[in-house]
Amino acid sequence: MTYPDLHMIIDGEHVGLGSRQSESVLNPATGEALARLPHASAEDLERAIGAARRAFETWRTTAPIERGRILRRGAALMRERVEAMARIMSLEQGKPIAEARAELLYGADVIDWYAEEGRRAYGRIVPAASANIRQMVIREPVGVAAAFTPWNFPALTPCRKIGGALAAGCALVLKAAEETPGTAIEIVRALHDAGLPNGVLNLVFGKPAQVSAHLLASPLVKKISFTGSTPVGKALMKQAAEGLKRTTMELGGHAPVLVFADADVERAAALLAAAKFRNAGQVCISPSRFYVQEQAFSRFADTFTAAAKALRVGAGVEEGVTMGPLANERRLAAMERLVADAIARGGQLRTGGKRIGNAGNFFEPTVITDAPDDSLIMTEEPFGPVAPIVRFKDTAEALARANSLPFGLAAFAFTRDNATAMEVGDGLKAGMVGINSMAISTPEAPFGGVGESGHGQEGGIEGLDAYLDVKLIAQARAV
Fold first, then answer.
1. Which of 37, 131, 217, 220 is packed most tightly, with the most Cβ within 10 A?
2. Which residues of the chain have pLDDT under 70?
């Protein structure tokens, strides 16, 4: 499959360009236009909300086992179509085909997990003070939800929101990223081909501020789920507050890593380099501040730097490429700013540090050591292939520096000492902590942060709860 024609999907209908406003979707590896993407008009958005509201009345009463069957069939179709879908993702997002394939398969696993978990939206009986009263707690779908997803994971992030909402019995209006629309279109198509009723899942695009303002202003939209930057998340929360809408916010991070001298330092460096440069560092849970105990610093820095140098940078669709381009020109400028500031403030450039070529958004895998804690690279989420490595003396110092920022999405630590592992597991202020492991994102476990990294979770039973209201029914014995 080549790159597809682009459209929205509203009430099961493909809505194309027509006379609508539109924008070009660019290949980040070449800068060339792939296709034109239509933007939703106000009428389109109202139609999507109305379709979702009508479909909700039927979908909410559809047996969870039947909702699950449809979701599982959709996930199976994603697996059957994974090679074509991976190429679409690589063209529009830039990540290597292998990463795109893995993301799509993971997204299918997420939908599968929710298909089963939707059958377990359990209630309970609460013993009452009176023998004549039966107190039942039940859980009901909140209604129409709106979801906003970013460009860095154009399959996984929509699948998390789609799976949770639809398994709970909600209907959804999804505004996926304009930079990566093809992937979202293929996911929604797979679910409709699996038998999803029209209107249960609607896909729109447009200017983010305009679309979000319209959706959040509607009294029919009861819940929003957003993945993106902290400033945008705060702005959406203010809008949501006007209608007291429930919110899930998965926002920015700047994940610290603590590598202790007793760890398997070389293995830790190899794992962390692979995690750091995955998707060119454009990962919200990417390890991005590396604190290494001084006795192990040289070994870690040398091994990590060698791994960075060994990466092959190029267009994601090319065979053998292990790191693709950044999303846009703005990210290149941001990397240059971070590197220049770190070096000016005493950081040592171990490798990389500059753009690659004149076409596409390529930046060298970069390692900087000994940048001060108040440098930009240590205080701002880099969201790119720049890794700062610094030294620490003891656990107390490492925890204090790791917890010094207001972000709290992910954190990691490597140690062979169980007491140290327990201390840092308890001490790191983050919604997700990986100790001797990078595997903090799985379908069955909650995914979300604290502090400036947001609130609420996707994944696990918590991701289903996010789309369910709790209702108490106190029933007296009839007289």
1. 37
2. 1
Q: Is residue 3 part of a domain?
A: no
CA distance 256 to 401: 9
Domain CATH code at residue 396: 3.40.309.10
Q: Retrieve residue 398's tokens.
A: 């490492």
Question: Distance between CA atoms of 479 and 175, rounded to whole angstroms?
Answer: 52
Same domain, 236 and 274: no
pLDDT at 1: 53
For 215-258, give the DSSP string.
HHH-TTEEEEEEES-HHHHHHHHHHHHHTT-EEEEE----EEEE
Exposed / middle / buried, residue 301 (Cβ in 10 Å: 0-12, 13-18, 19+) = buried
Tell me: the pLDDT tens digits for 349-406? 999 999 999 899 999 999 999 999 999 999 999 999 999 999 999 999 999 999 999 9
Active site residue 140: no
Domain assignment of residue 393, given as a range: 255-442
By the 8 A CB rule, do 351 and 385 touch?
no
**Is residue 448 a part of any domain in this protein?**
no
What is the reported pLDDT for 2?
Answer: 84
26 shares its domain with 136: yes
Query: Which residues pair with residue 412 across a beta bridge?
Result: 257, 434
Q: Identify whether residues 216 and 109 lie together within a single domain.
A: yes
Q: What is the CATH number of the domain that holds 136?
A: 3.40.605.10
H helix runs in 6-96, sequence order: 42-59, 64-80, 82-93
User: Which strands, in side-by-side order, build the sheet including 221-227?
Assistant: 13-15, 8-10, 201-204, 171-175, 144-148, 221-227, 246-250, 454-455
Please check whether residue 390 lies inside any domain of the structure: yes
Q: Are residues 74 and 206 in the same domain?
A: yes
Question: Are the C-beta atoms of 5 and 180 separated by less than 8 Å?
Answer: no
State which H helix or E strand residue 110 sits in: helix 97-117
If asked whether residues 398 and 300 sit together in one domain, one would say yes
Helix segments in 245-314, DSSP class H: 265-277, 297-310
The helix or strand, by DSSP H or E, that contains position 185, with its residue range, turns out to be helix 181-193
Give residue 277's pLDDT: 98
Reduced to 3 DSSP states, what percent helix, strand and coil does the chain have, rounded to the nearest 5?
40, 25, 35
CB atoms within 10 A of CB 102: 17
Torsion of CA 23, 28, 31, 32, to 10 degrees: -60
Domain count of the fold of the chain: 2
Q: Which of 250, 381, 452, 458 is catalytic?
A: 250
Catalytic site includes residue 159: no
Q: Yes or no: say if 38 and 31 are a contact pair by the CB < 8 Å rule.
A: no
Could you tell me the CA-to-CA distances from 357 to 114, 338, 361 in Å, in that order? 44, 19, 9
Q: Please report whether residue 198 resides in a domain.
A: yes
227 and 286 fall within a common domain: no
The one catalytic residue in 103, 159, 178, 284 is: 284
